[in-house]
Amino acid sequence: MVAAAGIEVGQDTWFWAGNMEAEYTTNGLTKMLMQRTVYEECFVLKWVSWVPTKCLIMAWRAEMDRIPTKAALVKRNIGITDTRCPWCNCYEETVMHVLSDCLIATNVWDGIGRWCRLDPIYAFEIKDLLEVYKSMNGSKKGKKIVHGIVIVTMWSMWKARNDSIFNGKRPNVENIVASVKSITFLWAKSRLKWFGHVKRRQTMAPVRAVENFIVEGRRSRGRPKLTWEERIRYDLIELHLSEDMIRDRDSWRPRIKVKDY
Ligand SMILES: [Zn+2]
């Protein structure tokens, strides 16, 4: 932070680069940091605890244009000649193309948008995807879930893209959307593990009695009293998970066992 030396008549003096007229002060430093627009322009990715770290890191790197798309590799002089998207074979493979503009990506976002009941998702930059939750209606918790789902979607698409490049796999929109749901389900399963068990029993079975048990205990003021079932249903509705999926063990089981993520 030492200012570049200049030759002047008189005694040599040190100046602090943050404030060329005075010595270093913490106030001066604060002022300098506030003035530096570069800090204000930095996008800060909102972290989500239930989202696997590798998904968060991938989304964070994508926003900074630091994922090795073909276009990025060419910029770094890595000898590839064909920079076309492996999915559509038409456009240059940039971060925006593979995660937003390609027909496969658009269809995946359509599927995710429908599942989460969101308005159509349009993005001009990666940041727009990572801020989808800000413009939606819903509770703070609902927004957090949607934000997590967006991050998981980006990661799932990048994984599918790598599968196409390295293993020659054809992209499958339904599979990508299903993998996003599965990862979200893992989270739901750990929170709602009783739900599947209770719902599979007959209505009159003793275990169902628990559903009418009013949840007592500490509750923040002003919130309506919810029965155990209502509480769980509320969670599921927010996640837009289907109860039918829970009744059917065959579909529930494979969905909660997600390998290789
Ligand atoms: Zn494409």
**Which percent range describes the beta-strand content?**
under 5%
The shape, in one word, is globular
Rounded to an integer in angstroms, the radius of gyration calculated over CA atoms is 25 Å
In helices, the fraction of residues equals 40-55%
Low-confidence stretches: 206-219
Q: Main sheet?
A: none
Bound small molecules, deduplicated: zinc ion
In total, the number of domains comes to 2
Q: Could you report the average pLDDT, rounded to the nearest whole number? A: 73
How large is the count of helical segments?
14
Number of strand segments: 0
Strand/helix succession? HHHHHHHHHHHHHH
Termini distance? 44 Å
* Structural class based on helices, strands and sheet pairing: mainly alpha
In words, what does this structure look like?
- Helix content is 54%, strand content 0%.
- With 261 residues, the protein is mainly alpha-helical.
- The protein folds into two domains: 1-42, no CATH class; 44-256, no CATH class.
- The protein binds zinc ion.
